[in-house]
Design brief:
Length: 155
């Protein structure tokens, strides 16, 4: 029998949920109607790994890192769907990194769908708590990048 604690991942469940929601909603957005989305989770070496793969147009080599930049957008295959904000993958990668993990596009295959891989290392809850508390989303987004816009009363 496996010892207690083996292959356990300590994480901020809300942040990991947000990553998975972003990946799955993008997969739905870019997949053709009645397309298939694949979700696979496993332990590989010393990491918990989740793959989300769609049957959409894929991601060209030159866009494999750009999709993680704030406000970068790739147009959807369905013009009836509203565009996103271009923040979902940037935030998702940040959340993966504060867990000591990574979020990346598997080797791009234009025209063959996209496959995103999320890796979170297996480690103690103490390590994770220190890592997550050291950095917050508010620090990463730097409040000085935002301006408060005051509304004017209608004339």
């Amino acid at each position: 029998s496996d010892p207690v604690g083996e292959n356990q991942v300590y994480m901020d469940a809300m942040k990991i949920k947000q990553i998975l929601l972003n990946l799955l909603s993008n997969a739905v957005k870019f997949s053709p109607e009645k397309g298939t989305i694949f979700l696979q989770a496993s332990v590989i070496d010393d990491s918990f790994v989740v793959y989300v793969e769609d049957q959409g147009p894929g991601i060209a080599d030159e866009n494999a890192e750009k999709v993680f930049e704030k406000f970068y957008q790739v147009s959807s295959t369905d013009n009836n769907k509203p565009p996103g904000t271009g923040l979902g993958l940037a935030i998702s990668r940040f959340f993966a990194e504060i867990h000591g993990g990574t979020l990346y596009v598997e080797p791009p295959r234009t025209g063959e769908g996209a496959c995103f891989a999320l890796t979170i290392p297996l480690r103690s809850s103490v390590d994770c708590a220190e890592s997550v508390s050291r950095t917050s989303l508010a620090q990463a987004m730097k409040p000085k990048q935002f301006r408060k816009v005051e509304e004017k009363e209608p004339a």
